[in-house]
Write a structure and sequence with these properties.
This protein is mostly beta strands and 570 residues long. Helix content is 13%, strand content 32%. Helix 1 runs antiparallel to helix 7. The protein binds 2-acetamido-2-deoxy-beta-D-glucopyranose (8 copies). The site of one 2-acetamido-2-deoxy-beta-D-glucopyranose (NAG) has 7 residues, from strand 9 and strand 12.
């Protein structure tokens, strides 16, 4: 037995090790900690969305839904000598910025600056996430020709400052040649690392009267320096209840999903506003249904159209994949139909749909196999209906599916945690698969994504489509659970389906400034980094990215070699 195990170990170490040392995997793994809150200041890993009910002095009852924002933070060190700051990884914006040490909103600066005209209520604690002092770094260079940096978020915070470059260390990467902003004025206590499309960079969409332009942001610098081969990353949020998730730049990890990985196009819902290429992660959602496993209940007629699978809609709706939002938002009509099917009651008192639920920590109301099913064109993502429940009292729960816009869906963490999402910014497409949970990092099967060839091992969705309907009420014929084309053949040629170049969805969509998303990350030693070593001096265009993975790998393997025989003896 032991001999066999040692053989396996040797196979792993003696055969794989040299390959790992000589190859240069082109992926950059990042692990993050998830936090939920109303703002980053109060966000905590163990928080969940919650409904608070309280009485005002005048007797009116107030209802407040809290912790609707998700954050994924990473620790960065910047400059020489290096200074530590925490930033939020955000797929919904595209610039990296950090708080400058001279920000007048910081409590510490207020005390030393008596003529500040700020109110004490406006002040923020800058200690928690760190600030960057440009005058303390001998490697910082200001970009004299760049316009003033300005960004604002849906949570009302803003940041303004200057552009520059410095050395950056992120996990085991050393990055040079990346432009970032230092905010000398901001009321957000934490900076952001936006990894979205360059079209959304503030130099391109900002209010500055100068000519708009784009520059190479974080994912682009990773590619330019050779650390990754393509402008891609895979987001694995993990179970809702797990504290950590990960982003893999430049690759896909086949161990983290089940079934097929399908590709669908990113659609341009802003084309009506003169935006020529997509700048946010909108896709076409082609249907929603509910499935329940009722086969256990002596229901032997296994025909296709039994009550266990109910199609709610087959209207094509634009859906935003929004990693900064915790809940999921649907048009009112769809919400009503779902509520109807699952027996949820609208509570006029609190303003949400409620269901009875279990009297324990795990809010459950439905059979664990009951899923809200999302169809993206011939393939499904199953999401457990229990994951949408928010406890409001001992035995009742509200449904965390909220109305927002009549023609748009926002898929937040409650959906995203069930999906493995590959963002291909080069080919304007998204890879989607059913996420697999409880995967050991040692079992990772990382494959590099090479630019124009698209996502490896992914297949085009059977009904790959970049059109959507501009009218929710148009059609709800058909069945997402059958393999046949929906309804009769004519319904797929609905006149409300529009080509991607001609539609504006709602006026609310025409603002480009980010409205809600931010995603956060904190570092942790990622075991999968052991599979990633790279050529440290690959540099072009003045930027370079290096890493310490090789060293980490050696430490792990040395420990492993010495400890394993000891462990096997027991
Ligand atoms: C900084 O300045 C250079 C040269 O003027 C410009 O090309 C570059 O895009 C600027 N970077 C940023 C982030 O604005
Ligand atoms: C941040 O500042 C803006 C502009 O002064 C203000 O409107 C907003 O309420 C502030 N937000 C927070 C969270 O302090
Ligand atoms: C921030 O920097 C800009 C550009 O250099 C400058 O105009 C502004 O006065 C500075 N603001 C503060 C609060 O230091
Ligand atoms: C449905 O229930 C049957 C009988 O209890 C069980 O064998 C089957 O695995 C279940 N299927 C799913 C998808 O939960
Ligand atoms: C499952 O079966 C129960 C009773 O057998 C029925 O009331 C319920 O509507 C079924 N659920 C679905 C989604 O078909
Ligand atoms: C979704 O659930 C259904 C029923 O439990 C199952 O047959 C199907 O394979 C699941 N889909 C995926 C993508 O896992
Ligand atoms: C991507 O490129 C690497 C080498 O750079 C190669 O080993 C790998 O097979 C390529 N993958 C695909 C899917 O083309
Ligand atoms: C990264 O930078 C730090 C500090 O400048 C240095 O100590 C370290 O050796 C560098 N790592 C690599 C892989 O270049």
């Amino acid at each position: 037995m032991i001999y066999n195990k040692l053989n396996t170990v040797c196979l792993l170490l003696c055969v794989l090790l040299p390959q790992l040392v000589h190859s240069s995997p082109k992926v950059v793994p990042l692990s993050f900690t998830k936090k939920y809150g109303n703002s980053i200041q109060d966000a905590q890993s163990h928080f969940k969305p919650r409904l608070r009910l309280f009485k005002r002095q005048d007797g009116y009852e107030l209802v407040e839904l809290t912790n609707q924002q998700s954050f994924y933070s990473v620790d960065l060190s910047i400059g020489t000598p290096s200074q530590e700051v925490t930033v939020l990884v955000d797929t919904g914006s595209s610039d990296l910025w950090v708080t400058g040490s001279n920000n007048p909103y910081c409590i510490d600066n207020f005390n030393s600056n008596s003529n500040s005209n700020l109110d004490t209520d406006d002040l923020i604690d800058c200690e928690q996430y760190g600030v960057f002092d440009i005058s303390d770094s001998k490697s910082f260079t200001k970009n004299q020709s760049a316009p003033v940096f300005f960004i604002s978020y849906g949570d009302t915070t803003f940041a303004s400052g200057i552009w520059g470059q410095d050395v950056l260390h992120l996990e085991d990467l050393n990055i040079t040649g990346l432009s970032f902003a230092v905010a000398n004025r901001t009321n957000s206590s934490v900076g952001v690392m936006g990894i979205g499309f360059s079209g959304l960079e503030m130099t391109n969409v900002g209010t500055d009267s100068n000519k708009p332009y784009t520059y190479d942001n974080f994912p682009m610098v990773l590619k330019r320096s050779g650390a990754i081969n393509s402008l891609t990353y895979s987001l694995y949020l993990n179970k809702l209840t797990e504290e950590h998730g990960s982003i893999l730049f430049g690759g896909v990890d086949h161990s983290k999903y089940t079934g097929n990985l399908y590709t669908i196009p990113i659609i341009n819902t802003l084309s009506g506003s003169g935006i020529s290429n997509p700048i946010q992660f909108d896709v076409t959602l082609q249907g929603i249904g509910i499935s329940t496993n009722n086969s256990s209940k002596n229901d032997n007629n296994n025909n296709d159209d039994d009550d266990d699978q109910i199609t709610i809609t087959t209207t094509k709706i634009p859906a935003l994949l929004d990693s900064g939002t915790t809940l999921t938002y649907l048009p009112q009509e769809i919400l009503e139909q779902i509520a109807d099917q699952i027996g949820a009651q609208y509570s006029a008192r609190i303003g949400y749909y409620i269901v009875p639920c279990d009297d324990d920590e795990q809010s459950t109301s439905f059979d664990s196999s009951t899923n809200l099913v999302f169809d993206f064109g011939g393939f499904h993502i199953n999401t457990s209906l229990n994951d949408y429940l928010i406890k409001i009292s001992r035995t009742s729960c509200m449904i965390g599916l909220l109305p927002y816009d009549s023609n748009k869906v926002i898929l937040g963490d409650t959906f995203l945690s069930h999906a493995y999402v590959v963002y291909d910014l080069e080919n304007y497409q998204i890879g989607l698969a059913q996420a697999k949970f409880d995967v050991d990092d040692d079992d990772s099967q990382i494959e590099i994504i090479n630019g124009t060839s698209g996502i490896p091992s992914a297949t085009k969705a059977p009904r790959y489509s970049s059109t959507w309907s501009s009218n929710m009420r148009s059609t709800s014929l058909g069945n997402i659970f059958t393999n046949l084309p929906y309804g009769n053949p004519m319904s797929s040629l609905n006149s409300n389906d529009v080509a991607l170049t001609t539609t504006t969805i709602t006026s609310g969509d025409t603002t480009i400034v980010r409205t809600s998303s931010r995603l956060t990350t904190t570092t942790s030693t990622s075991r999968s980094s052991a599979t990633s070593t790279r050529n440290a001096n690959n540099s072009s265009n003045g930027s370079s990215v290096m890493n310490n993975n090789l060293r980490t790998y050696f430490i792990y393997s040395i420990l492993f070699i010495f400890l394993l025989p000891t462990l096997l003896m027991f």
